[in-house]
# Entry
Amino acid sequence: MTKINLGKIAYIISILILPLILNAKVILQAPDTFYKNDVINFKIIVTGTDIKMPDIKSIDGNVVQSTGTSRHTTIINGTRTYQFVQAYAMIGKKDIKMPSFDILVDKKVIKTKAKIIKMLKVQKTKSDLYDLKISVDKKDVYVGEAIEFVLKFRYKKDLDIVNLDYQKPSFENFWVKELKPQQSQNNYTQYTEQEIKYLLFPQKAGNIKLDPVKIGVTTMQNGYKGGFYLSSPTQTTPVYSNELHLNVKPLPNDTSLIGDFKIDATVDKSVVDEGDAISYKLYIEGRGNIDDLDEVNIEIANTTIYDNPSKKEYNLKNNIYGGKYSKIYSIVATENFTIPSIKIKYFDKKTASVKTIKTKAYKIKVNKKTIKENKLEVSTIEKDEVSNSIQKFEVIQTTDNEKIIFFFVGLLCGMMLIGIYFLYKLKVTKNEDIPLLISAKKADTPNELFKLLLVYINIDEELDKIIYKLEKTSLSEYKTEKKTIIKKIKELITKGVKLDR
# Structure
């Protein structure tokens, strides 16, 4: 019987295989398939002594990111070679054509093999351990109509789950609001259930598909619940839901709202003095896509309208989405004017018709300011009366000494008054030259003065209260508030407070 020499066989095999390994200087490692929106990891492995890798930013329209590099050194028969590994990642949404990459190895260009990575159709995961399902409360809807989207995940209570990798679904062509998630555990079943709800508002008509949702379930591997391991081995299983199809119908032309709405408006007075402002308040509320309501602006000839920001509130009532829209306008005019009726159109799904709601028009009377005329009148006092009044005064004689004393006393008083006047004038002029005072006096509206003084918050508590009060000050009250603010600024300047920001 021939004796087998294992050492000799190993030597022969190494001679035959080693050249093949050394010749494989460039290898592309990439998967053959993937599911939509999965992360695709691939590597380029290069062996040589002088290596230059390509700069890969995108592949077939997909953004590519570098996820790490490694380098290994091998010495065979005194020859040193390097193995360089570059890892990449990208997210796939369709079949990916990977081109051939040029890599410079030891001053030679070596190409990788081109490859096509196929995207597989996602199938709902069927398992006794877990279940993922998506549903909607209706499938035939209109553009802008609220749809309740529910994601329900169920898993066995005794499943040793370490982590749930969940990413919010990508709802293209939808406006989305996320609702509060819920978790329930029924003692009479062997499953724990979790729910996440969204409100979807389709923004495009047509047959729209909602792709399956994926959750990565990371669990402890069987048999590794203790021992001497630094970290327990785990495994991640992708769990997929079903897919959904919606039929989204367009709204009638010139209509963006769907639901049931009402509108109202009020004015604080119907008669106003010239130069004073009236407050006009607009209210719109109802159930439906009130988020799609455009800003309501009004235009009235020969008036000045100050547009305050609108206020929007949203809520759910009886599981139906809706809310309130309110806006306040300040209107100043010099003559009578009419606030026009504001009209809003919406589509009523119950009657399948377009409805129009509107406010009533308001006629406002403006009282003109009366200007008092001052006429120059000639005095009618008779000459005799003047003579008689002059005759009543007696002529008082003064001595020379008294004249000298009166002169010096008068001179001294005059010099004191002149000095006091110049000191006061210097102080007033100094204060009046402060840029803040100049700008404050030029501010024509409460909002303009508020923006000017906003940077001086926290300098003085009393000044802070006055500044914040400006936000709610009407034009009719503004003149008085402006005087108060200027007076307060002067007091702070007199006290030495620096107001030169």
